[in-house]
Design a protein that fits this description.
Strand order of the largest sheet: 1-2-3
CATH architecture of one domain: 2-Layer Sandwich
Order of helices and strands: HEEEHH
Structural class: alpha+beta
CATH superfamily of one domain: Nucleoid-associated protein YbaB-like domain
Number of helices: 3
Shape: rod-shaped
Strand content: 15-25%
CATH topology of one domain: Ybab, Chain: A
Number of strands: 3
């Protein structure tokens, strides 16, 4: 039983380490006049919108966020892979 508790504690520590490492990963996306900065925990750090982008704001924002999320997911998978050999992550990076 104590062995299981130790394993749970180790997993929890690994998750916290991963979360801290991802917070340091910064993704910058520029899409049709919108500049978005997001960290590996998918927290938006900043956003700026040019006058040009305001014409089609809703669509441009959606596209920019989707691109940022995709890049963040790739960065997360790479970070997780570098921290330990986890099965299935190689498929995400292709």
């Amino acid at each position: 039983m104590f062995n299981k508790l130790k394993q749970i504690k180790d997993l929890r520590n690994q998750a916290k380490t991963m979360q801290n490492a991802l917070a340091e990963e910064i993704i910058n996306v520029n899409h049709k006049g919108i500049a978005l900065k997001i960290n590996g925990n998918m927290e938006v750090l900043s956003i700026s919108i040019s006058e040009q982008a305001k014409n089609n704001l809703e669509s441009n924002l959606k596209d920019c966020f989707n691109e940022a999320i995709k890049k963040t997911q790739i960065a997360m998978a790479k970070k997780m892979q570098s921290m330990g050999n986890m099965p299935g992550l190689s498929d995400l990076l292709k």
